[in-house]
Design brief:
Number of strands: 12
Largest sheet: 6 strands, parallel
Helix content: 40-55%
CATH superfamily of the largest domain: Glycogen Phosphorylase B
Number of domains: 2
Length: about 375
């Protein structure tokens, strides 16, 4: 179950649900996904039940209209109960520890069906300083097991629930390596459609256009890179409340509009084309982001990433021997690292190949689903 979000949305938890459900279904396990309605017709192999509720856009907005919120909770609970009457579930897996665990707890009390809950980090991050929101985390204690998208949010889970560190499984996101892989043909087509040439060096920012992602750092980073390499171009994929501010920041730096593009939202099945078209993936996040699925996709696609030293992805890369791609937030050397990587094509190509191997070895959805099947079996037998 994915509370108040459509499964087709280009966000980490939504991709997580989609990929896990598809791989489970591929293994002969009957899967029903309950998520918000969005009208998407993207093909999928799992059963999808859509709930028609107003999208709140963020966790902090959920409690702004108590009547609407109560109605949303009710619709999800009814959808679960009706689906269970038809499909007879063995286990419920809910995403996020906030609000969805309340629904899952009620469902368990009414049916006796246990649930697993996965923390993706946005719910704990947005709840800081909000006692009215933190109150609802108590329902996560009713889960048979809790999993975390990264070890960097374990302390938050421990603070908000009664689970011990050893009892929480870390379940990183994955990437579909069969879809996200370098494609020179798509690279040329996308560049042509964007008005960029084959020799241009494209810096890609992909994600929600919000403060946490470091979006407003991107104009300055690009300006500094362009001053050293006039083949640099900027591509910003996504939508969000800070788009206008980013556009204004680029204008204040007197950056010619021919040098950058804002695409808005791109369908998930088209994102591989944009990764293939790009040379450097920028991830200057300023919050403790658990694990960015876009970063895994970029690396699988042969797009070389540069990260601020914060969050789960940075910790993983340092652990795996890619420390040079992770920059200290205090040194202001993000732009310099991009400049160095663009100048060293041979070295950058070698790093890309190693990252591609890492994705295939440790971050496929198949390996992630094998981990979850063990978690499901353990939960049912508890």
């Amino acid at each position: 179950m994915l509370f108040n979000m459509p499964v087709s949305k280009a966000s980490g938890s939504c991709r997580f649900v989609w990929q896990i459900a598809e791989e489970l279904q591929n293994r002969g396990i009957d899967v029903t996904v309950i998520a918000n309605k969005d009208g998407s017709k993207s093909p999928h192999n799992f059963r999808l039940i859509e709930v028609d509720t107003p999208p709140y856009g963020s966790w902090t907005n959920c409690l702004s209209d108590k009547i609407s919120f109560a109605d949303t909770l009710n619709k999800y609970l009814i959808a679960l109960l009706e689906a269970n009457n038809t499909y007879h579930f063995d286990l419920l897996h809910v995403q996020h520890l906030l609000f969805s665990t309340l629904i899952a707890s009620l469902f368990k009390d009414l049916t006796g069906i246990k649930f697993v809950a996965t923390c993706h980090g946005t719910e704990t991050h947005e709840s800081v300083g909000r006692s009215d929101m933190e109150y609802f985390f108590k329902y996560a204690n009713e889960a048979a097991l809790v999993t975390s998208a990264s070890e960097v949010i374990l302390d938050d889970i421990l603070r908000l629930t009664r689970f011990s560190r050893n009892s929480i499984a870390v379940t990183y996101p994955g990437v579909d390596v069969s879809k996200f892989k370098p494609d020179s043909g798509k690279r040329s087509v996308v560049r042509s459609n964007l008005g960029f040439s084959e020799k241009d060096k494209i810096l890609l920012f992909a994600g929600r256009l919000v403060a946490e992602k470091g979006l407003l750092l991107v104009p300055k980073i690009f300006s500094e890179v362009y001053q050293k390499n006039n083949e640099a171009r900027l591509l910003i994929v996504g939508e969000g409340p800070q788009r206008k501010e980013a556009e204004q920041a680029l204008a204040k730096l007197y950056i010619n509009q021919n040098l950058y593009r804002f695409t808005g939202l791109i369908p998930q099945d088209k994102m591989t084309d944009f990764y293939s078209a790009s040379d450097i993936f920028l991830m200057p996040s300023v919050w403790n982001e658990p694990f960015a699925t876009t970063a895994l996709e970029a690396m699988s696609n042969g797009c070389l990433p540069v990260f601020n030293d914060i969050g789960g992805i940075a910790k993983m890369l340092k652990k795996e021997g890619f420390k040079k791609l992770v920059l200290s937030q205090n040194k202001g050397d993000f732009s310099q690292k991009v400049i160095e990587l663009l100048a060293d094509e041979t070295g950058s190509s070698a790093i890309c190949k190693k990252l591609g191997i890492l994705m295939k070895d440790k971050f496929t959805w198949k390996s992630r689903v094998t981990q979850f099947i063990n978690i499901y079996e353990q939960s049912i037998s508890k």
